[in-house]
Every structure is written in structure tokens, then in C-alpha cells.
Design brief:
Largest sheet: 5 strands, mixed
CATH superfamily: Protein tyrosine phosphatase superfamily
Strand order of the largest sheet: 1-2-5-3-4
Number of domains: 1
Helix content: 40-55%
Structural class: alpha/beta
CATH topology: Protein-Tyrosine Phosphatase, Chain A
CATH architecture: Alpha-Beta Complex
Radius of gyration: 16 Å
Shape: globular
């Protein structure tokens, strides 16, 4: 496995950006980007009929809060959907890293139940994509480049520059942990 090789180094941000921008094609309002993980925009997340049809039982709102997309657990109470809110503005100076592990844990626990998870923000491009990439890196043991390739095969995403830098740092940290664990 390439990610387990001792010589693996996190690619430079410019290479990650190239990976994000290559082979772009039209994507819909929602896409399954990993088995049972969907990324979507806000209108999809508000369409409870569609969510039921898709079989979504868990939602991560990466734009939670009154100044963003204020749905919350009460909004989904009649749809039997478990809700997890992350109050994250889509700004390059915002530190989203404190949400990486708790969100990955929420997604992982849902997937253990063999259910479907929808992760959304306003457009389903930056915040939600960042959290899904972090999940894939933390729980599925993908490198940042592998996670980007996996998601981009199904949806055009573009985490903002600050989030991309934070994913780069997460990859470096996880790589060090893999190295330390392999000795």
C-alpha cells in the first residue's frame, strides 16, 4: 500500500489543488461520494421527502447555526433523522480541525449501523467536503490525495485554501502516526 510506505510524504498543496481541479464534470445537488456517504447542498438537506427516498438517516450540517443553515435536530424530528451540527463559516482563516474527529466519529458510528449519511453545507463544495475528506483519512486510512481522488470521482469539490491546508496538516500527522505504529 502506497500510504503505508515509509517514504510517503504529504503532497504539496499545489499538487492537491491540481488533483481537485482535474477531470471536473457537472455534478448534481447531491452525490454519493463513498458507500453510504452523500455530500449535498442546503436545498437537498431541507428536502425531507428526498432524504426519505434516498434512505438518509443521519445528517451532518457543516454550516449549522442561525447565521448559516439553521435546520437542527428539531427540523428532522418528524423524519427520524439523527442530526449533527458543525458551526463552521466557509472562511480560510477558520479552524475546522476541532471538528475533524467528532464528525468522523459520528459518520463512522452511523456507517456501522449500515445506514446512509448526508454531509452538507451551503453548496456542498468546501465545508462538507472537508469533513468527508477528514473522515476518509481518519477512519478509512486514506491519504489526503486518495481521499480527494475518491470524492472527486463522484462530485466536484473545492475546500477553501485554509481547509485544504488543515487537511494537508492532518495527512502529515496521520502519516507520522502510521510510521510510528509500524515500528
Amino acid at each position: 500500500m502506497s500510504k503505508q510506505e515509509v517514504g510517503y510524504e504529504t503532497p504539496p498543496i499545489s499538487d492537491l489543488l491540481t488533483l481537485l481541479l482535474k477531470n471536473r464534470r457537472p455534478t448534481g445537488a447531491y452525490n454519493e461520494v463513498w458507500p453510504n456517504i452523500y455530500i449535498s447542498d442546503a436545498p437537498t438537506a431541507r428536502d425531507k421527502t428526498l432524504l426519505c427516498r434516498l434512505g438518509i438517516t443521519h445528517i451532518v450540517n457543516a454550516a449549522h447555526g442561525p447565521a448559516h443553515i439553521d435546520t437542527g435536530a428539531d427540523f428532522y424530528s418528524d423524519a427520524n433523522i439523527e442530526y449533527y451540527g458543525v458551526e463552521a463559516p466557509d472562511r480560510k482563516d477558520f479552524d475546522i480541525t476541532p471538528f475533524f474527529y467528532p464528525t468522523a466519529s459520528f459518520i463512522h458510528k452511523a456507517l456501522l449501523l449500515c445506514v446512509k449519511v448526508l454531509v452538507h453545507c451551503a453548496r456542498g463544495v468546501s465545508r462538507s467536503a472537508t469533513l468527508v475528506l477528514a473522515y476518509l483519512m481518519i477512519n478509512e486510512k486514506l491519504t489526503v490525495a486518495e481521499a480527494i481522488s475518491a470524492v472527486c470521482a463522484n462530485r466536484n469539490i473545492l475546500p477553501n485554501a485554509g481547509f485544504l491546508q488543515q487537511l494537508h496538516q492532518l495527512d502529515s500527522k496521520l502519516n507520522l502516526q502510521r510510521r510510528d505504529g509500524s515500528h
